[in-house]
Amino acid sequence: MALNIDQDHARFRDIVKGRIRQNLRKYISHGELLGRQGKDTVSIPVPQIDIPQFRFGDKQSGGVGQGKGDQGDPLDGGQEGDANGKGKAGQQEGQHALEVEVTLDDLALILGEELQLPRIEPKGQSKIASDKDKYTGIRRTGPESLRHFKRTFREALKRQIASGTYSASKPIIVPVREDKRFKSWNTAVQPVANAVIVYMMDVSGSMGDEQKEIVRIESFWLDTWLRSQYKGIESVYIIHDAAAREVDRETFFHTRESGGTMISSAYKLCADIIQKRYPADEWNVYPFHFSDGDNWSVDDTLQCINILRDRVLPSSNMFCYGQVESPYGSGQFVKDLREHLGKDERVVTSEIRDKDAIVDSIKAFLGKGR
Question: Is 183 helix (H, G, I), strand (E, B) or coil?
Answer without folding.
Answer: strand
